[in-house]
Amino acid sequence: MELVRSYQYSSHLVVYLYILIYALGSGLFEPSMTAVVSGAASPQEQGRVQGANQSMQSITRIIGPLTAACLYQYLIVFPT
Q1: Which candidate, 78, 59, 58, places its Cα nearest to that of 68?
Q2: Residue 49 near residue 37, CB atoms below 8 Å
Q3: How far apart are CA 38 and CA 50, in angstroms?
Q4: Is 80 contained in some domain?
Q5: Does 62 fall in a domain?
Q6: Is 10 helix (H, G, I), strand (E, B) or coil?
Q7: Structural domain contains residue 35
Q8: What is the secondary structure of 19-70 as a DSSP string?
Q9: Domain that includes residue 56, residue range
Q10: Across residues 65-70, what is the average pLDDT?
């Protein structure tokens, strides 16, 4: 029983560590990517390019979890 508890405790720590690393990476990546995209467009097109960039990010935030859910439904080989 103690082994099960230690496994659950360590798996929670791994999840929290992943969330922390993801948050830090996202916080560093997104502003940098926005700056790169902004610098690649001419001043007259920056608004349009930034809008397209934000739209693509939003679409991937919708499609990503849906794809993961479908894969998990049919390929239940991932740890639970």
Answers
A1: 78
A2: yes
A3: 7
A4: no
A5: yes
A6: helix
A7: yes
A8: HHHHHHHHHHHHHHHHHHHHHHS-TTTHHHHHHHHHHHHHHHHHHHHHHHHH
A9: 2-74
A10: 89
Task: Say which residue the tokens 């700056």 belong to.
Answer: 35
User: Percent of the chain, pLDDT > 90?
Assistant: 30
- Please enumerate in sequence order all residues whose Cβ is within 8 A of that of 46, keeping only pairs 6 or more positions apart, or say none: 38
Alpha carbons within 13 angstroms on the beta-carbon side of residue 21 total 6
Report the alpha-carbon distance of residue 27 to residue 38 in Å, rounded.
17
Two tokens, residue 27: 């916080």
Domain annotation covers residue 26: yes
Q: How many domains does the chain fold into?
A: 1
Question: What does the pLDDT look like over 23-59, one tens digit per residue?
Answer: 999 899 888 988 998 888 898 999 999 999 999 989 9
The model carries a pTM of 0.61
Instruction: Write the CB contacts of 41 (distance below 8 Å, at least 6 apart in sequence).
Output: 48, 49, 50
